[in-house]
Inverse folding.
């Protein structure tokens, strides 16, 4: 069970970093931190509709993997404590 826990922890770390990076890649909708860093300037640096949809799909999929890792690690921790 220790190998599975280590694999899930590594996967959790990788997905956390990737999720952070992917969320920062999303096009700013204006009015938030994106305006502070120049996102409100109206630049369209690679912001096509297809690219944005693909980025959304990848982000949601990676978010689901992240959530499954969290739940699995929680269950492993709960059942190891009872042994």
């Amino acid at each position: 069970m220790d190998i599975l826990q280590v694999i899930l922890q590594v996967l959790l770390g990788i997905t956390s970093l990737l999720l952070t990076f992917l969320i920062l890649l999303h096009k700013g909708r204006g009015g938030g931190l994106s305006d502070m860093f120049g996102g409100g300037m109206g630049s369209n640096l690679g912001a096509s509709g297809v690219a944005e949809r693909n980025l959304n799909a990848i982000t949601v999929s990676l978010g689901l993997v992240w959530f499954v890792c969290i739940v699995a690690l929680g269950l492993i921790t709960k059942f190891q404590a009872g042994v």
About this structure: The mean pLDDT is 83. The helical segments are 2-25, 33-36, 49-81.
